[in-house]
Specification:
This is DUF1799 domain-containing protein. It comes from Aurantiacibacter xanthus. It holds the Pfam family DUF1799. InterPro entries: Phage_TLS_TfmB. The protein has 124 residues and is mainly alpha-helical. The chain has one domain. Helices cover 52% and strands 9% of the residues. It has 6 helices and 2 strands. Strands 1-2 form a two-stranded antiparallel ribbon. Strand 1 and strand 2 form a beta hairpin. Helix 2 runs antiparallel to helix 3. The radius of gyration is 17 Å and the shape is elongated.
Length: 124
């Protein structure tokens, strides 16, 4: 579920691997390895979702406009997290019942998406 949220937050593209390529270069990786790392980033890619995770993903996508944001210097925005009151309204408006397991999935996806939206590249 976290990977699905990262995929959404990245606009359907893989993560930016430019820093990893720079690090590999500094550490003396062969040029072809550095080029392969650079080539990984920015590609559009498909993302498969298991059927049992589909309802949680649909719920997450129903509330992707409900982020609390903080404006920062230079026109940047910090994504603080989902506004849970608004998420409840968004889910209700779509006829989605919010049970505890769904909230747990939403919170896991929220954390992964928030990090990606704020430029933090992570993996599980």
């Amino acid at each position: 579920m976290r990977d699905a949220a990262r995929h959404w937050a990245g606009g359907g593209k893989q993560a930016d691997w430019s820093q990893a390529a720079k690090d590999a270069e500094v550490l003396g990786a062969p040029p072809e390895a550095v080029a392969a790392i650079r080539a990984r980033g920015g590609e559009r890619c498909e993302f498969e979702v298991w059927p049992e995770n589909w309802p949680s993903l649909q719920a997450f996508l129903a509330c992707t406009t409900q982020w609390r944001t903080i404006p920062m210097a230079g026109g940047q925005v910090y994504y603080q997290g989902l506004d849970y009151a608004s998420v409840s309204v968004a889910l209700s408006g779509r006829g989605i019942t919010s049970e505890p397991p769904l909230w747990a999935d939403l919170q896991a996806m929220e954390g992964a998406a928030r990090n990606r939206l704020n430029g933090v590249i992570e993996s599980d």
